[in-house]
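Aim 2 progress update. The chain analyzed this quarter is reproduced below.
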Amino acid sequence: MKLLPALCAAVLAVPLALTAPAAAAAAAPDIPLSNVKAHLSQLQSIATANGGNRAHGRPGYLASANYVRNLLNAAGYATTLQSFTYNGATGYNVIADWPGGDMDDVLMVGAHLDSVTAGPGINDNGSGSAAILEVALEVARQGLQPNRHLRFAWWGAEELGLRGSRYYVNNLPAAERARIGGYLNFDMVGSPNAGYFIYDGDDSDGTGAGPGPAGSAELEQVLQSYFAGIGVPTRGTDFDGRSDYGPFISAGIPAGGTFTGAEGIKSSAQAQLWGGTAGQAFDPCYHRSCDTTANISDTALDRNTDAVAHAVWTLATAEQPQPVWSDTFETATGWTVNPGGTDTATTGVWERGDPQATDSSGPKQLGTTTSGVNALVTGPLAGSSAGAYDIDGGVTTVRSPAITLPTSGQLRLSLSWYLAHGSNATSADFFRVRVVGTTTATVVERLGAAVDRDAAWATATADVSAFAGQTVRVVVEAADAGTASLVEAAVDDVVITRQ
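Predicted structure tokens:
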């Protein structure tokens, strides 16, 4: 179960800098490659001694789970060997909690531990399993005292359809699911003809599935920051639910992670970007008996393991942002429609409400919000057709109540949003969010185009520290300003935090 790499990207204009969780995070250690490879050698030996594989329901899998669990127990983790049944066989997840941190804000890091029956599964997915195992052991060696609670997981039966991770998520009480603030997935991180892919949490590529749940963009940015720091370019890979992040996303939990490629073929452009051989698979031994310790790129494994450590140390030790102001639109808080008296839209004006779904060659207004029941939408009713209550006649504007910002700290604005339109749209149509104080800054802008664009919630985050100490307002605009076309937009969960 793997992702094929996304090969192209769309651009979303967000002029203010998108920033990763900041400051005050402890520096991550350099994880020794030799330690990670030692775990791979052990997994290879386990497979060799147990029929050549470590598959679900086979003795090699349970031996692998016990190997991981014994090391974690000795290091001071509280571990659980969670059992489940699939295809008449018992499977196991290894769950390991590091003591301390905020139990109401859990950072999970996971990788699947099983192989296919055809081979030992050293890249798929001994590589991800060994990488997160060595990072977990380094957490213990350093006696890390995280602000967030750290939980590591090794999943069973991923190769049979994410069975272990789905069992874990589905059997968590709702309150426990709500405490998981993010999940990082590492599945195949040592491919011999490696690419450097990061799950596209904000859907900036604009391909395939939409964005991950709110917070996924921040996880993506943290991983991007590591690779940028070592001068390695990355590309997005789509959230299509084919690895263990899938059940977490379905439960509304933010997700991210890295991937070095499976059976997909490396293009000439990718070979020029990363080296390796164009026209060959990223992993020529994917799901084959030759997926042994010889089927690993040391360079890719080393870089990705250090990326895991960077993400864990950054996300777990950073001071958690404090809320300054937020609006989920579940109650009326004083947003003003047409505040300047200059709007021209005749239908589809901004309104706080429970949206009804519309469809025209795909969803154009979503009947779901990112939280609760209500959102800001351009005409929440569906009407007799998708165009009955869409924006017509020009611009519609809505302005927040006054927001007084603190005088210090890093201030960040985040919001969920979408712009949807039919293929009859033009670049004169738009969605725009501005922050207005003594100056004005545009923080999100998406122009229309003569293509069909379906509605899908995305998350935007911007640094608004330049407005510290000011009283500001958030202004949201949308327009069908060219020829008459089908245009819809929505906003939810507007939050300003200080760190």
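Residues 122-141 form the longest helix (20 residues). The longest strand covers residues 487-498. These observations will guide the mutagenesis experiments scheduled for the next reporting period.
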